[in-house]
Amino acid sequence: MNANNSDAGLPLEQAELAAEVFRMLSDATRVRLLWELLEDEAAVSDLAARLGKPIPAVSQHLAKLRMARLVRSRREGVQVFYRVENEHVARLVRDAVFNAEHAGPDLPPHHRDEVTHLPATTPRSARRTP
Questions:
Q1: Number of independent structural domains in the chain
Q2: If you count Cβ atoms within 10 Å of the first and of the last residue's Cβ in the chain, which end, N or C, has fewer?
Q3: Of 72, 68, 75, 71, whose CA–CA distance to 32 is shortest?
Q4: Which residue, among 33, 46, 31, 54, has the nearest Cα to 80 in the 3D structure?
């Protein structure tokens, strides 16, 4: 499967896999779990505490995310640690959350740093053309 294959468009199998990813992201708890895992791995019990959810419920959500290849797990003794599968998943989650921030009337938090670092320019309406 090659996403850059422009000869045949997007293959059905790849479209179905992408749709499955979106189905996994259609649950707020799963999005929150992925958001918590963007920076570092975490144990199930820690994730449950951060989200204020029961451990069994968090485990079930993580199992679904693992089956969809959005997270990976590793066992250390009795604890299971999870992390985001790859940078594509991390980017997808960040972009979805950042896009949601645009729903409000204010400047989204993810743009605030950009505004303070923008170079000073003259607005287009104030420029004179020679």
A1: 1
A2: C
A3: 71
A4: 46
- Each residue's pLDDT tens digit, 67-103: 999 999 999 999 999 999 999 999 999 999 998 887 7
Distance between CA atoms of residues 75 and 66, nearest Å: 14
List the domain range (segments joined by +) for residue 16: 12-98
What CATH number should be reported for the domain holding residue 69? Answer: 1.10.10.10
16 belongs to a structural domain:
yes
Task: Measure the CA–CA gap between 118 and 23, rounded to whole angstroms.
Answer: 37
**Is pLDDT above 50 for 130?**
no
pLDDT, one tens digit per residue, over 49-62 is: 999 999 999 999 99
DSSP code, position 38: S
Q: How many helices (H) and strands (E) does the chain have?
A: 6, 3
